[in-house]
Amino acid sequence: MLQQTQVATVMPYYRQFLKRFPTMTKLAAATLQDVLKAWEGLGYYARARNLWRATRQVQQNFHGRIPRRYDEFRKLPGVGDYIAAAVLSIGDEQPLPVVDGNVLRVVCRWQGIADDILQASTKKKVRSFLSKIIPVRYPGRFNEALMELGAIVCLPREPLCGQCPLRPGCFAFRHGRSDLLPLKSKRAPVPVYRVALAAIVRARKVFIQQRPEKGHLGGLWEFPGGKCEPGETPGHAVVRECREELGVEVEALVKLAVVRHAYSHFKIVLHVFVCRLHGSLPRTAPANAWVRTDEISAFPFPAANHKFLPQLKEFMKKARSEQSEKKTIRD
Ligand code: SF4
User: Fold this and answer.
1) Is 162 contained in some domain?
2) Disulfide: which of 200, 210, 240, 248 matches 287 by Cβ 3.0-4.6 Å?
3) Which of 103, 148, 153, 171 gets mutated to test ligand 1 (max ligand atoms within 8 A of its CB)?
4) Coil, strand or helix: which one is 255?
5) What global pTM score does this model have?
């Protein structure tokens, strides 16, 4: 949970998650859908899928015990160098250095490493340096101390060198270069995509579908739609996307909402339309359902969708009361 996410954000999710899945056996026995629901809102859903798969592998291949050997643990889904070193050093006192963004900054300043920290070779250099100095006794504490030093003392903008235990041997401090280190190349600007979504309504229900398990937001539920082509209006895009994706004709009745959302590598502007279906039901989406808006909360949705669900519920409620009014007048 803590990958790419701050402790304060994680805490309520962590507590709820442990309540829901107090043991690895319980987590492994759960459905992916249940796990995604418990993770809903925390983002980076690959972490949830990997954690669930990893617990299943631990149950099946290691008799329910987390493997202690680095090569075995490193092969579990979602485990990279960072997670492997963090878990095995902090949880099992193995002398494996952890290299995160904070550690990179501290070591580059401390050792005067003037290489781009976005390059894998820099990470390798830092890891190799730390491998030589990490103590055999309490390596977990060493890693935690270095990460904490980066988080609260060796700050990105104004490091608190006066409070730093590394100051006597620190290259950046001695040479007055803490504002120049670490070096970081500029990332390409984050692309912004316009996306058109269809809330297809029929008989008080709305159509939703499940994303394939693999890939971005895998296993979560969504509304059909997709990216607008260059020069295409969202209103046209939503009709085209439904035709291409589901093989159905829809009519965009009303624009429900425009919401913005940022992912780690791109941003989206969602244009959401309430649509009417012409003709028959959508054909074989991998999994789909017609649901009432009060049933939607049983399905895990990406955070961006939650931004317009209240409007959708409101719309459906209004449509229902208008229908019943008409009915009463006719009666
Ligand atoms: S002395 Fe300053 S620049 Fe050097 S590691 Fe400590 S806080 Fe960072």
Assistant:
1) no
2) 210
3) 153
4) strand
5) 0.71
